[in-house]
């Protein structure tokens, strides 16, 4: 089968951009016959990262969620490499490979050198094979390996940078393992004894090996494979450039000044020059370089001096629940309301049935994640709601893990009081129920005065009085360390968002991860998202953005920015994202003041949607989850790996397959019942675009949904 031609690719791209409008039957046939590369059966893929079975950040989510699609495509020829950490006991199940396999022999070679290496399966969907390396067992080689790295690349690493020292040790161990694995394939050729233990090693052509490296912390692996001239194709993926993250954290006008930065000087100022050099060398030595979004590709072009060959967007394992996700929203929203009752005890002067829950979450990079303009926009939203006399209350959760000592006393006290009130009411309910039954069984109609005796009345009065307080509800759930220097607390104080009884916008700063064991909000992060109404992520620096992607998968509308990879992806693949509940804030072409004003207007207009309109919008949002499915997006990783194999082996002809329409890149058309807004202040038009009559059938299944 011939590989896809340039003409074919251009044709499909044209169809994508036009929303796949077919002018004739011939057009449809050409579109359906679009071909794409598949990973060859005689090739092995090693995917290396610091975050394999080691939860540190977003790359862990990428690797974990992508494992199913990777193993479905490559089976046992897909092997993940990473550091051996204490958490592996909960995530990895060890196993012993067959002694005739190159995997066993490569591991044994490292063990003979005194290195500790384990092989197992990662306990996630797909159960990929993982090889984990104990950094401490090879630490005695650190100086000699740093010397070898310097002699080959002239990159010196300070002895005091412990984290970078660890990455060098890990990089050499993984490079040696891959090189030994490739040598074992060449040494013994293809397994000749057909058996269950070596069935996967039997092929009819020369074996190929691809090393796919993620981020600079595993980059030494790629550098040394190239320095040793191993017959291994290499792919390097950057999820965010190191220098870009530091520059944005410094409150610089990053994107406007991107072409003019002196990268060497800027890296030196921030004392990360050696790390920057490792990242830049990895990207430029790789046979194929990929990034997760177009905006990161533009950044890499200037900062690490190489344009991405392929864009590999991040995905999720999508399991569509159709209308069931609406029921889950209702269930978890009630649990959030239970938390609100406890946290705001004594000041529940708002109608919980007309209360909306907004949230922002992510790594605590206050400016990069847009926390600064979000809090400023909340202050304006508070003013808008009070000025128009709205009866809607917005409770906003700010979830940025920060250093803290414990839960604060007021938060715990509030939940203890509400728990006591619930227990008292439950006890009285049981007694009243028994009295009603006895009277009805005697043919008497129960009277209110006879059901509630004086003792019960006293108990209720005591609980009600205990639930009153003069102080306002706290803005945090924990005792934050150095609270006087905390960016969120300072911003809330500056904007006077202090949970005053007059405020229509209330705030809760939760400086810790969410989990179901939390005594205050007893919900996991996923359950919490499902219970909210809107996620707000106005990021300034966000190479991808998993938080709005997770909202989309769960049918929760979100606000993102045109400086995030997710926002750019949605603009490219959805004709009118706003109609689907994906609000994209412009942070690139307008001033900060205008961005704040537009964000406040977006949130205000969302708060004015009726219950029915929000239900229909959630239905639309959930439909977009197919765009983020790894079953569709994993092929971009495959294309990158195949391209690397073709660079190393010019005569290599990769296998191809014909894609169905359902698996090709798709541009979602505008919903039939909506129209495109024509100006910046246009969210109100989206309210009208949610045609209640046109989608009445969607609403019929959600009759029980509350506000």
Short description:
The chain has 27 helices and 19 strands. The chain is an alpha/beta fold.
CATH class of the largest domain: Alpha Beta
Uncertain regions spanning at least 5 consecutive residues: 1-33, 192-197, 675-681, 696-706
Total beta strand runs: 19
The helix content, as a percent range, equals 40-55%
Strand order of the largest sheet: 4-5-6-3-2-7-8-9-10
Structural class: alpha/beta
Main beta-sheet annotation = 9 strands, mixed
Give Rg in angstroms: 29 Å
* CATH fold annotation of the largest domain: Rossmann fold
Q: What global shape is seen?
A: elongated
The number of helical elements comes to: 27
**Hey, roughly how much beta strand do the residues contain?**
5-15%
> CATH homologous superfamily of the largest domain, by name?
Glycogen Phosphorylase B
Report the average pLDDT across residues: 86
Number of domains: 3
What is the second-level CATH architecture of the largest domain? 3-Layer(aba) Sandwich
Alpha carbon gap, first and last residue: 56 Å
Question: Would you kindly provide a written description of the structure presented here, covering whatever features stand out?
Answer:
With 707 residues, this protein is α/β, with parallel strands linked by helices. The chain folds into three domains: 198 residues, Rossmann fold; 71 residues, no CATH class; 278 residues, Rossmann fold. The chain has 27 helices and 19 strands. A nine-stranded mixed β-sheet has the order 4-5-6-3-2-7-8-9-10, with helices on both faces. The protein has a six-stranded parallel β-sheet with strand order 15-12-11-16-17-18, sandwiched between helices. Helix 14 packs across helix 16, helix 15 packs across helix 23 and helix 16 packs antiparallel against helix 18. The longest helix has 33 residues. The protein is elongated, with a radius of gyration of 29 Å. The two termini are 56 Å apart.
């Amino acid at each position: 089968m011939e590989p896809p031609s340039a003409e074919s690719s251009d044709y499909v791209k044209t169809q994508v951009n036009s929303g796949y409008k077919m002018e004739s039957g011939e057009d449809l046939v050409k579109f359906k016959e679009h071909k794409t590369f598949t990973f060859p059966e005689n090739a092995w893929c090693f995917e290396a990262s610091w975050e394999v079975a080691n939860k540190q950040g977003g790359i862990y989510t990428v690797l974990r969620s992508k494992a199913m699609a990777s193993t479905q495509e490559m089976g046992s020829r897909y092997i993940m490499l990473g550091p051996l950490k204490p958490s592996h006991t909960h995530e990895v199940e060890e196993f012993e490979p067959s002694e005739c396999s190159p995997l066993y022999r490569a591991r044994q070679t490292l063990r003979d050198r005194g290195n500790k290496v384990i092989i197992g399966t990662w306990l996630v969907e797909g159960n990929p094979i993982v090889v984990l390396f104990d950094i401490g067992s090879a630490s005695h080689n650190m100086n000699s390996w740093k010397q070898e790295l310097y002699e080959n690349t002239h990159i010196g690493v300070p002895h005091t940078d412990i984290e970078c020292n660890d990455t060098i040790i890990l990089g050499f161990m993984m490079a040696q393992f891959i090189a030994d694995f490739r040598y074992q394939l060449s040494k013994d050729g293809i397994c000749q004894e057909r058996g269950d233990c070596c069935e996967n090693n039997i092929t009819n052509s020369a074996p190929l090996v691809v090393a796919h490296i993620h981020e600079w912390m595993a980059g030494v692996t790629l550098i040394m494979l190239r320095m040793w001239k191993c017959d291994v194709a290499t792919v390097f993926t950057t999820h965010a450039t190191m220098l870009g993250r530091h520059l944005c954290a410094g409150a610089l006008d990053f994107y406007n000044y991107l072409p003019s930065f002196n990268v060497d000087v800027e890296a030196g100022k921030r004392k990360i020059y050696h790390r920057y050099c490792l990242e830049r060398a990895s990207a430029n030595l790789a046979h194929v370089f990929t990034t997760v979004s177009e905006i990161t590709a533009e950044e890499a072009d200037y900062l690490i001096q190489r344009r991405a060959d392929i864009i590999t967007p991040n995905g999720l394992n999508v399991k569509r629940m159709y209308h069931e996700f609406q029921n889950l929203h209702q269930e978890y929203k009630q649990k959030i309301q239970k938390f609100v009752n406890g946290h705001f005890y004594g000041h529940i002067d708002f109608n919980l049935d007309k209360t909306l829950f907004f949230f922002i979450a992510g790594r605590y990079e206050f400016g990069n994640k847009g926390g600064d303009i979000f809090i400023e926009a909340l202050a304006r939203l508070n003013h808008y709601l009070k000025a128009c006399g709205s009866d809607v209350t917005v409770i906003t959760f700010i979830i940025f893990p920060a250093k803290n000592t414990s839960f604060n006393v007021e938060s715990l006290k509030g939940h203890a009081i509400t728990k006591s009130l619930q227990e008292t009411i439950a006890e009285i309910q049981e007694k009243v129920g028994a009295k009603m039954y006895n009277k009805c069984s005697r043919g008497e109609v129960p009277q209110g005065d006879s059901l509630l005796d004086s003792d019960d009345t006293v108990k209720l009065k005591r609980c009600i009085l205990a639930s009153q307080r003069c102080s306002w509800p706290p803005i945090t759930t924990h005792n934050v360390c150095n609270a006087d220097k905390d960016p969120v607390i300072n911003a809330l104080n500056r904007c006077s968002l202090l949970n005053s009884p007059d405020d229509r916008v209330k705030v809760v700063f939760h400086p810790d991860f969410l989990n179901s064991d939390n005594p205050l909000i007893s919900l996991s992060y996923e359950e919490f998202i499902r219970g909210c109404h809107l996620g707000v992520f106005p990021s300034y620096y966000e190479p991808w953005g998993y938080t709005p992607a997770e909202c989309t998968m769960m049918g929760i509308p979100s606000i993102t920015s045109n400086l995030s990879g997710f926002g750019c992806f949605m603009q490219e693949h959805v004709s009118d994202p706003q109609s689907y509940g994906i609000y994209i804030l412009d942070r690139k072409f307008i001033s900060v003041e205008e961005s704040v004003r537009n964000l406040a207007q977006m949130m205000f207009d969302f708060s004015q949607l009726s219950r029915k309109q929000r239900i229909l919008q959630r239905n639309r949002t959930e439909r977009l989850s197919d765009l983020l499915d790894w079953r569709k997006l994993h092929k971009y990783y495959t294309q990158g790996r195949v391209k690397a194999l073709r660079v190393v082996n010019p005569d290599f002809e990769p296998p191809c397959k014909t894609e169905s329409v359902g698996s090709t890149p798709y541009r979602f058309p505008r919903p039939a019942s909506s129209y495109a807004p024509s100006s910046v202040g246009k969210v109100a038009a989206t309210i009208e675009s949610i045609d209640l009559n046109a989608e009445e059938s969607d609403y019929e299944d959600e009759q029980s949904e509350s506000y």
